[in-house]
Structures are given as structure tokens and as C-alpha cells.
Amino acid sequence: MTVRKPLPHAIAALLALGLAAIILFAAQRVLIHLEHATIASTAPEIFALKNQGLVFQRAAAHAPDVLPIYGSSELLRPPVPERGNIFFRTAPTGFQLSPVGGGGANVLIMLQKVGALGSTLHGKRLAFSLSPGWFCTAKPGTHGYKGNFSAMAATEMMFGGTLELGLKREIARRMLQFPETLEQRPFLEFALRRLASGKLLDRLVFCALWPAGKIQTGLYELEDHWAALHHIRRQTKPPPQLQEKPVDWTQIIAKASKAGPADAAISRQLSAIDRKITAGSRDTGFLNGVKSSPAWTDLDLLLRCLATVHARPLILSMPLGGHFYDHAGISRSARDEFYKKLPALVGQYHFPVVEFQEHDEDPAFLIRQQPHLTAKGWAYYDRTLDDFFHGRLPPR
Q1: Could you tell me if 106 and 140 are in contact, meaning their C-beta atoms sit under 8 angstroms apart?
Q2: Is residue 2 one of the residues assigned to a domain?
Q3: Would you say residue 87 lies in a domain?
Q4: CA separation, residue 245 to residues 5, 66, 88, 155, 217 (Å)
Q5: Are the CB atoms for 159 and 217 separated by under 8 Å?
Q6: Can you tell me the distance from the alpha carbon of 40 to that of 98, in angstroms, rounded to the nearest whole number?
Q7: Sign of torsion, CA 359 360 363 365?
Q8: How far apart are CA 77 and CA 60, in angstroms?
């Protein structure tokens, strides 16, 4: 009679781990299916989890009828019907707009999201809305970067396999210039410092950290999926009734233009500005800001990243708002340096760019001095996004 030996503990543990891995994998696939199935509801919405996590961004990237747009506070307000996510909610021209961003989010934040999404963006159309003020200041504030920083996106970008090491090194050096975002994240800071140094020993240490980084990434992803499930179950609105309909852009822009600020309101705004400032007297400081702003470095890194992942981006920039710059002592000729530098940089990567330079002195395009679009500004944005999505955007 043969006596069966008890299963060794090691084999039992391996079987248990294997079973747990299968269960986790199956659960993840179910959650991903749910995220993709509810994209019509979540795509037009703006919420913190979409900005801080990645699962909703990935779902939007996989959806052929969704155009992601990354930006800052201009995506949040004003709540006018022409604002992109509201106007395209029902996909009147065949697609929805999926905004990602928060107040103060800048190019370096967008760069980390793109790097984290990596190959998911291969061949995907997406748009980026830039605030021109970022590129005209030698020392921009850091509050917005800190408020929008995502440890998940940063970790996934650094330990992902899409970007080459040299590009990651340059990004790491920029991220280390914001040490306050890394104070509570010693592992990420240590990895960034090893990567940024460029020394052979540090490179080997970073490679040795790779398995731990992938584990950290996996944990972030699980947490993100479960948070997404909670959001879908508790906060997701019913999907809108998608319906294509004829869109007359000429009529939409004409109607939105009537909703712009009245001349009296503009006069009151300008009365707060020192009218005694000599025209062009502050050109030198402005030009120094355009020349030395670190946002240009960040934009170049973003464009390199987009080229690496073979994405199909549109770069949008709001105009400077020259009606107010004139009264602040900054001439149109000085502002033209920004309008020359932006398309020159983006053009190196053969990506389309629209900066609405012709609306530089249009007081009805922006809300006061803030980088926020009026109804008219959004109408022009919407038409440009529609042309881009459908391949009608004329080459520069």
C-alpha cells in the first residue's frame, strides 16, 4: 500500500501565490473592462482621480471616439456651453473631449502623464492646452506643480520601458528641482537622483532598483483601479445620449462672440492698470523671461516624449492677451517673440501648433488677464479641436 506524502509547504505556497495572481489578474481585467465600458460617462468629466491616476486616461486613450486634452485651469472654467468638455459631451461631431488637468498644472506635469502612459498613446490623437504666461517668466511659481504632482505617474514614467534612458535622465533632473514633492517619497527621490547623475555606478544602482520600481508601479495600479471602481459606482453620471448633428461653426462663433465682455467692463478692468506706464518700457524684462523660462525646456522634453511614443498631438496655446500687455508696458513687437518661438520649437517635431496669435489684442477672447477662455475663445478652440480630430487642420 502506497502512503501519499504530504505536499511540501513550498509547493503549497507557490500554488497559493499562483492562485492569488490569477485572481488579481482576472479582477484587473474585469475592472479595465468596466472602465472602458463607462468611458462615455467619465470622458467629459473633470475630477481629481482622473488627474492624479492613470486608469481613466488609459481608457480615454483606447477609445477611438474620445480626444484627450491636457491643460490647466482653463479646462475647468468658465462653465459656458462652449467649453470643450460641455460642447462635445454628446459627440455632436463624432467624438467626446476628455479633459485632464487642474489649476496650476504645467508642462512638466503633462510630461509625466504622457511618459507614464507610454505606448498606450501610440497613434493616438490628443491635444495640449498651454498657458503662454508659463513661457514668459524666468522663475514661474511652484504651487501649481506641487498641487498636481502624481507619484503614480512619476514612478510609472521612470520605471516604464517606453522612454530611453537619456530622456528619462533629463526629466529626472527637472523633477529634482522640486524637492518638496519628493520629501515624503524617499524611494522615488533616491531613484531619480541615481538616474539624474549619469554616472555608471548610479546607473547600475538604478537598474538594480528596477524590480522594486515595477512592484511599486503594480501597487499604484491596483490602488488606482479600485479607486476607479468606487468612483464609477458612486459618482459616475448616466452616459449622455450621443448624437451627431450638423454644426455651423460660423454661427457658433458669432453667437459666442456676442457673449464676450462688454466694452464698459473692459474699461473698468484697464482702469486698475497704471496707464502712466510708458509703452514698451517693460519689454526688456518680458524678453528676458521669454528667453530664460524653464517651460521651454519642459515643452521640448514633452515633444520628445510624444515623438518617442509615436503619439499624434495638437499643441494649442491661448493668446497672451495683448490688450492688457499694452497697458502694462509690453509692446506687440516684444510679444511676437513668444509667437515666433513656440511654433519654431514645435515645428522641429512636425506637430501642428495653433497659438491664436491673431487674437492677441482681442479683448473678448480671454477673461481679463487670466489665462481663461471666454465663450468666444472656447468656440475657436472647439473648432480647432474638431478640425484636428477629423484631419482637417490645415498645415502651417
Answers
A1: yes
A2: no
A3: yes
A4: 72, 17, 11, 42, 43
A5: yes
A6: 10
A7: positive
A8: 21
Asked if residue 1 belongs to a domain, the reply is: no
Sign of CA dihedral 280, 284, 285, 290: positive
Identity of the amino acid at 110: M
Q: Of 242, 239, 243, whose CA–CA distance to 41 is shortest? A: 239
Angle (CA) 87 234 146, round 5°: 70
DSSP 8-state symbol, 139: S
The residue assigned the cell 496707464 is: 275
User: Which helix (DSSP H) or strand (DSSP E) does residue 80 occupy?
Assistant: none
Judge whether 256 and 378 are in contact, CB under 8 Å.
Answer: yes
**Domain presence at residue 3:** no
Q: Which region, left, alpha or beta, applies to residue 223 given φ > 0 means left and ψ of -120 to 50 means alpha?
A: alpha
**Grid cell listed for 365:** 477672447
Looking at residue 84, its amino acid is G
pTM of the model: 0.90
Q: Where are the beta strands (DSSP E) in the chain?
A: 66-71, 96-101, 125-130, 312-317, 353-354
195: cell is 538616474
- Residue range of the domain that includes 332: 9-389
Per-position pLDDT tens, the chain of length 396: 555 555 566 676 666 666 666 766 666 677 787 888 899 999 999 999 999 999 999 999 999 999 999 999 999 988 899 999 999 999 999 999 999 999 989 999 999 999 999 999 999 999 999 999 999 998 888 899 999 999 999 999 999 989 999 999 999 999 999 999 999 999 999 999 999 998 999 999 999 999 999 999 999 999 999 999 999 999 888 888 888 888 999 999 999 988 755 443 444 454 454 455 777 778 899 899 999 999 999 999 999 999 999 999 999 999 998 777 877 788 889 899 999 999 999 999 999 999 999 999 898 899 865 678 999 999 999 999 999 999 998 765
CB 111 within 8 A of CB 171: yes
What is the count of structural domains for the chain?
1
Residues 6+ apart with CB under 8 A from 150: 51, 52, 53, 109, 112, 113
